[in-house]
Amino acid sequence: MKWTFLLIMICSSSSLYAQEMTELSIIKQQVKSKRISSYDRSGDNHDNLQHIKHGEKRVIFDVKGTGIIQHIWITMGPEPAILSRNDIIIRMYWDGQAYPSVESPIGPFFGQGWNESYLFTSAPLAATPTDGMGLVSYFAMPFEKGGRIEIENQSGREINTLYFYVDYVEMKQLPLHAGRFHAWYNKQLTGPVDSVENEHWMFGPGKPNKTGKDNYLIADIKGKGHFVGVNYYVHSPTPYWYGEGDDMIFVDDNVLNGTGTEDYFNTSWGAPQAPYATPYFGYARVNNDIGFLGRTHLYRFNIADPIYFDSLFRFTIEHGSMNVLTLDLASVAYWYQDKASPVPAIPDAAARKPQPMIGPSEIHRWRNEWRKSKGNNPTLWGN
């Protein structure tokens, strides 16, 4: 079965590659390559925007007419330990609309969770050397009546330097049925629905979840389009495995029921011990702690297998089997719609703040409290 799956993946990737190569060979008519970048207009080498204060917004791309953004590259200073990428917001507006169709912290959008900095490689998005500070997108982003990209600084300190490229093509008209690119960030500190973290029926029978009522929300979309992927950031305060949480995807009048977090993200039997990357799925960050304690970043892009919807798409996932675990969850969902539509407001800076790490010292303190509750008997072991 393992080799069958690998063969399917290779054949699927090869087929898409062949289509891309065929498309690449076609000489386009009435198409002009264009670029907006932060280059120094004086001809000197100060190729960046500078001194973006807390609370300030800067427009880095504002083009009228018809075109498709093909590539974005952004980097900024100072480094993430000083300037939180979790608190720099990127928004994108299409066709002259006053509302954004893309709204997300810039780090999570490009595959960097919790204001951490690490390498991330996928087909549409990447965070490149050094240490994941080069933020890259190859998502196609069409617009018919103009496109605008805005950066807002909510970090509490100044952005010293912001470098960027936005490469796009200008054309007379878009390809037939070209959709508009959308992305939305969400974050939630989940809790067990009945206050008991009853994973793997450790404390008795579970309470079946058939409706998805208390699931974590990855996307909630009204309209017509197709879903193309998600970056999913999980911080677990327990060493117990969170991956039994099932995906439940509501598509029009149908439900796509999955068998677990690990299964939706094309993994198996728990989280890997080291990061790995494929073009469409992988673990960009794994915890290096006890069991599944700590932070993991999973991604899956539905490039070969978009999920199509005509009127409704709601992507939910359980936090632990039957929603029994406390988890600090965040995600960025990506999709196309037949027209530019607004996305919900994203959590504010206070709500986006990552939960603190839990490690051996905290566990030892909890053990000490347990021993005290048992009279500090010297023979107490802990089982």
Automatic annotation (TrEMBL):
Tell me the protein's name.
DUF2961 domain-containing protein
Which region is the signal sequence?
A: 1-18
The UniProt keyword set, sorted, is: Signal
The source's superkingdom equals Bacteria
Matching InterPro entries, A to Z?
A: DUF2961
- Classification lineage: Bacteria, Pseudomonadati, Bacteroidota, Chitinophagia, Chitinophagales
